[in-house]
Structure formats: C-alpha cells, structure tokens
Design brief:
6 copies of one chain form a homohexamer.
Chain A lengths: L8 H10 L3 H9 L4 E9 L2 H14 L8 H19 L11 E11 L10 E11 L6 E11 L1
Antiparallel strand pairs in A: 1-2, 2-3, 3-4
Helix pairs in contact in A: 1-2, 3-4
The structure holds magnesium ion (6 copies).
C-alpha cells in the first residue's frame, strides 16, 4: 500500500513546475503512464486561478470534462494547493494582493498497489504580493487527491 | 526592487529539499552568500515540527538564538509553510493524522536591491496521512519572511 | 437546564428544511409556541445568501427588525450555518463555486428551563459546486444562537 | 450528469441520522444498492470522532480497509462534516468544549449517470458545548466526497 | 438604535484592561449600571484561558451560572477575543507558543435604546510567543456579544 | 531580551487609537524615538482598509516606500490586526458586513536590547456590522511585526 519512491506524484508535480525543461520532463512522466500539463496564470482573483487550471486540465485530457467526480477531485486538489500559496485565507485581491503563478497538473498512480488507481496532483509556484511590481515574494502549493 | 532570477530563495529552498545531493546544493548556495540547512522530523504534533526546525536553524547558525526578531521571522515562516502542509487547519494528531517531513531553511537576499537585506525561506516536503503505514500522500509548504 | 427532547430546535429546523410538507410542519411548530419560515436562495455571493435569510426572517416576524440584538443573533447563526455549507472558507464565487440552497429559520426555547428564553436556529440545505449544471454535490449547515 | 432526486445521498444521510427508525431506513437504502451505517461517539477530542467513524465504516464494509483511496475519501468527508459541527476551528477540548454525536455513513451513486460511480456521505448530528451537562446546543455537519 | 458614545462597551473593556488603576475604573463603570471584572491567566492551552475567564465571570456575578444562554454568550465572546490574540488559528501550545494575558469582562447596554438589553465584552491583552522568556510580543483581542 | 515596560508598542498603539488627544500622545511617543500616525477608514472591502493604512504609513514616513521588506512587515501586521476585527474570516462585504475604523501605526523598538531594532504595530478600533446605521458593535485588532 506504500508510496512508490519513483512515483511520488507530488514531488514530480513540483519538479515539473520548477523545471526549465518541462517538455522532456512530461515525456519521462508519460513513460510512467502518467499524464500532465503545465501553464501560467496571473490574477487578483482566486476564481480565475481555479478556472485556468480546470480549463488546462480539461483541454489536455487530464480529466474527463463530463464526469463530475473528476472535476470534483481536481477542484479540491486546486483548493488545497491554494492553501499553500495563500497561507491562511484563500483570498487575493480582497486582501490587497495578487499572484503570478505557474501551475502543473499530473495524473497517475503513485502507489505500489495498482488498485489504488489514479490520483491527481496540482502544484503551484510563483509570486504573491502587493499589486506593485517587485513587492512580492515566492509561494508554493500542492494538492493531492484520489480521482 | 525585483526578485533576482538566480536568487529565488523559495525555489532554491524547495529544490534543496527535493534534491538527493543536498551537500553540493548547500555548497553552491554558500557561493551566493546564503546559509542553509536541511533536516527531518516526523510527528503527530505540530509543535514538534516547529521546535525541530527552530533547533536546526539555531544550531546551524541560520538565526541568532538570542535575537527575538530573528526567531520571530523564522516562527512565522514555519507557520506559513505548515499551512501548505496542513491545508486548512494547522493540526495533526488532533485531527487524527501524522506527518513525516523533510525541511530546509535558507537565509539570504533574493532581491536585486542589497538594501532588501536578509530573508528566510522554510520549505517542507513529505507525507501526511492516517497514523497507518502507507495511508498517506505527499504535502509541501513554503514560508518566506524578511528577517 | 437540559435540552428538551421534543424541542430540539436544530433537529426541527433541519427536518423542516428537508420536508416536502413544510406547511404542516410549521403549523405543528407553532403549537410549541415557535415561529419559523422557509425560503430559497441561489447565488455565487455569500452576502446574498445572508441578505435573503435576514429579509425572510424580518418579513415573517421571526426577529424584530429594529432591535440590533436580534439581528446580531440571527447574523451569527447564519454565519455558523454557512460554515457547514462551505467547509473551510466562507466563500463562493471568489473560489469559483455557487450554491442553490433552501433555508429555514426557527425561533423558540429548546430547553426545559423557561428562563433560557428564545433561541434561533438557521438551517441550510442544497447543492454547492462549479457554476456548471450538475457539477455539484449536497451541503448542509446549522447555526444555533440565543436571541 | 445531474443529481437524481431520489438518490440525494446527503439528504438520505441526514434523514437516516435523525430517524428514530434507522433499521428500516437502512433497509430501504440497500434497495438503492447503497450501503450505510449509523453510530454514536462522544468526546472532547476530534481525533476520537474521526477514529470512531473510520472504524464503523470499515467494520460495516462501507470502505475497503486496505485501499488508501477509500480511507482518503472517507477522511476528507469526515473533516468536512466536522466543519459544520465546529463552525470555524476544528477543535473541541482545546477550546473547552465537548461533543455528543450520532453519525451516519452512506455509500452509493447519487447521480443519474452510472459512470459517476460511488460517492460517500458522512453526516453528524448532536450537541456541542461546555463540558457541563445541559450547557450545550445542537450542531450538524455533512461531508460528501467521490470514492 | 446607535451606540451611545459614553457607553462604548468594547472601548471601556479595553481601557479597563490597560489601566493601572482598575478599581477606580470599575467603580465609574458601576455608575453606568455596568458590572465588570479583571483577571490574569498565563497558559499554553487555550482551554485554560477560556476556563479562567468563565470562572471569573461567574464568581463576580457577571453571568448567571445556571443559565446556559449567558454562558453561551460569554463563550462566543471569549472565542472572538481569542481570534484577535491568536490571529489565524485558535491554538497555543499545539503550535509551540504560549500566552500571558490580562482579561476584562464587562456587562451592560452600550446602545441608546434600552430595549437592546445587556451585552457582554471580553477583552484580552498581553504577550504571545515562544515558551522562552522575552521571545514574545504583544497581542490584543475583543469579543462583543448580546446576552 | 525582554519587553521594556515603558515601551510596550502594542499598548501604546492601542492607547493612541482610543485617545481623544492623539497629537500630545504622538508627541510623547516621538520622545521615545518612535514614529507613528493615526487615520480613519470605512469600507465594505478589506483591501481598502489595507490600502488606506499602507498609504498613511508611507505618507507619514513610517515605512520606506521603496523597500519591500518594510511594506512586507507592514502588510502582515495589518492582516494580523484584521483578524482581531473580523474574528474568523478576513471578509467584510462578501459576508454582508461593513466597518468604520480608526487605525494607528507605530514604529520603534519595544525591547530592552537595542539590537532588536525596529518593530511595527498596527492597531484598529471601530465598529463592524450590517450595512445599516446602528446595527453594529465594536471591534479591535492589533498586529505586531519586526521590520
Ligand atoms: Mg488528503
Ligand atoms: Mg508574506
Ligand atoms: Mg454556540
Ligand atoms: Mg466537494
Ligand atoms: Mg458580532
Ligand atoms: Mg508574531
């Protein structure tokens, strides 16, 4: 039932996020039978971050757009990742701050046991701060859910 | 006033955390005039995670143990990192879960402007889950503060 | 000082909410000397849910509109009920979700002791999810306050 | 993709909870091909509430004890239900309060589309208050998750 | 329905807290027909802060010990005041920090309208920080509730 | 390393806030080598409260506008003060409430040890409630940070 060391999906989702060479990274992940994507979003509104990730995940075939259980799994993974970025209140512009984020979404089975089925990892990395250039520091978040 | 691309302290703190070759990584960071450390802690009690990181940061000379402003900066960075790991309530055993974490602490100036002085980044990576072997998934957190 | 088994105001507020036959239910509650109402609200904005319940409670004579202590009691009961519906952050559209809710408000004394005076219960039941038909699941909330 | 009106799993989980005649109710739910259980737990420690529900769900065959994805689904449903009961901080004794709860767990597909698969609903109802007999009011919570 | 400028109960509760001459202050408040008390509590456990304030309020006749509605009003006022002190998670030792607090409780009607009846204000002031002498800064909190 | 009794910056920030004679108070604080300011803001949007305090602090030379570390220290102090005012969710209009606040910002060293350097205290006092005149009660908040 343990996590497989080579298949730590959260670690891969974060490395993919921080990699300057994502295409190769995604290719290697495909060899684990995993599927993933990477994108960018900047906003003062958390709902735009959510929507950008959902759209990318659907467009890249990571979740089935007409199965709610898959959107539900993704939504909660996104919300968990946003907790890491926002650290207390999942709010951006309403508390006078903005984000510039790179995101990655990965889908696959990180466990030894094949019956654990697919899981989804959403990783976020970027800057958060005042809506003033340079008045920002880095933030990261990861959400992991069964799908 | 912008973040220096080579000096993104949060990114370095996360890569150091995920690296299998931390000594070389820490050596390279020293060349940026940065100081850092890496350690491990597993617990069902959040306060033990806090204490382990504080102890490591003091023992490795990352913060001055007798200046409260430095402990205060570190404490809030740890708490922010814990938000990423716990995603909602900074609680472990009291909500029936446990963590096994690797942590890294880095201190240095990530900005172009030398007057921005030192900042501190605390990164956490590991597993969170039920107090049952294998019933766990990954989690990550990052806290960044001026010091 | 104990709760009277027949007068569990929260239980009644939830059963009223889920009942297909609310008029009879409200009639029976009137025989306990209680007053209540039931309504519906759908929105992506939490403040509209709050306002809809406040308006219904005033229009139905459940609280006195010109006594702040009564509005205050109701407001906190509504906020507590919203915690059950939102489960973490009292936010809807700002985290890309919407609700379709039925609400009930009940006022009366649920305790054996007449001196406990009036209490207010606000119950919420409905769906929460993405702003896409069918991409939603159920949610419930209950707030109870002295008035 | 819509919720099936007869199969609203959260509503059934709450009615089962509030019913004085649970055996008949569970029997009727079995005819929907659903599986469920009901139990009681009183504690000043949230982790004991979590453990009691997990144990009951495993003992009654509602989740497979050796599949983490099922425990994970249940855990998050329990945590969501606890938000409704605690309304702000998922804490009991640490903020000087205690609960006496009845819980129900239901598993089945509430959607029209068979591909939505199984979902799990955890409902909680009871009292919360000071650790003094009678100094308590009612609380309710519901968590719904795909499994 | 407005707040009476001379009767701002929260302001009085805070000034009483910060005053070096509380006896005179309490005497003047009695002339507004108000009743209050002041005390101290230091702890790493939030529930001990709650219990100390509840005990003082009962012993000083500020609330009626055998009416739950009064304890309920006080409890929520205490919890709200603790939010100001803890600023995010109502936790002390579990996140490796401790408090040394002075508290005040005041009861009276702060509004122009006599029908607004009694309200209760709980104010907290002191230090919060690491369980190390001097590694602490100040914190304040105020909770106001109808009673 | 202890707090200096005469230099309790949070206490001074609150007394300055509640004083009817702020000019004299600020003058006395200048003799401790401290710098401060006082202002007012009313809004249904938390980000306007944040912006008003940031603007006042910059205009009065309390923080250096072009050093991010100083804005960062101030931002977190403001957010902590807002926790005291909002007591649970840092939200105003989105949960149907509004504030009318006086704020003070003070900068100086509250510790015996000169090496502790400057700290910043943000205090907030005013009313919070429904967007209806008189339907409001008092609230207070204090945030303290190293700068
Ligand atoms: Mg999880
Ligand atoms: Mg920050
Ligand atoms: Mg209550
Ligand atoms: Mg959900
Ligand atoms: Mg209030
Ligand atoms: Mg602090």
């Amino acid at each position: 039932m343990a996590l497989n060391k080579e298949r730590r999906i959260g670690r891969h989702a974060v490395l993919l996020l921080l990699s300057d060479e994502s295409e190769g990274e995604l290719e290697r992940l495909r060899q684990l039978d995993w599927i993933g994507c990477k994108g960018k979003v900047g906003s003062m509104e958390a709902h735009k971050v959510v929507a950008a990730i959902e759209t990318a995940a659907k467009k890249n075939g990571i979740i089935q757009p007409d199965l709610y259980r898959e959107s539900h799994a993704l939504y909660h993974a996104i919300m968990e990742a946003l907790h890491g970025v926002t650290r207390g209140q999942v709010q951006l512009g309403s508390v006078h701050r903005t984000v510039g984020l790179t995101f990655a979404v990965l889908r696959g089975n990180p466990y030894e046991n094949a019956q654990e089925g697919d899981w989804i990892a959403v990783s976020l990395y970027g800057t958060i701060g005042a809506p003033v250039k340079g008045s920002e520091h880095e933030a990261i978040g990861l959400g992991v859910n069964h799908i």
